[in-house]
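Each letter names a residue; the fold follows as tokens. Both lines appear below:
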Amino acid sequence: MTIRIGDTAPNFKAETTKGPIDFHEWIGSSWAFFFSHPADFTPVCTTEMGRTSQLSGQFEARNVKPIGLSTDGVEEHMAWIEDVNATQDTTLTFPIVADKDLKVAELYDMIHPNASTTAAVRSVFIIDPNKKIRLTMTYPMNVGRNFDEILRVIDALQLADAKTIATPADWRPGGKVIIPTSVSNEDAKDKFPQGWEEIRPYLRVTDVS
């Protein structure tokens, strides 16, 4: 199954390290950062699980719930969490989905046969409170994710929703933003009373708080 931006995130029920969940019910009115790993007790995965845990306050401040997945069971996950906590100096509290039968991995197209027929690649799904897929990223098994970029994208998506803007290349919070071409100058006067710079008729930049 191919998952595209704008699709409703497929729902599923699964066992996790925090007990059974219904995915959509678990998301509730929050955003979700859903990410997969090839396997427990692997080095890159251990650092990523640790980094997600270390950033728990950052995710919480953005109303984002992290949830991991690997194609191992709850018992293996629980033992692995002890290693993650010990080696990454953290206390991991977010759930990890148990997916030994690959049902969720296949539902979300996390199994790439040319990489592995049994292990999930490093997929990322950012899902909004309406259960819509807002971003997908896929990393190979031997490359760890950039968590600064994950937080940056979440900030950009949430600001775009709140302010009806787009963000330019390499945007960071506090930087100038773009007024979309779908917003006329007349409408922009109401939406952006602070004004804007018109570099070209199709390229208008402004500051938002």
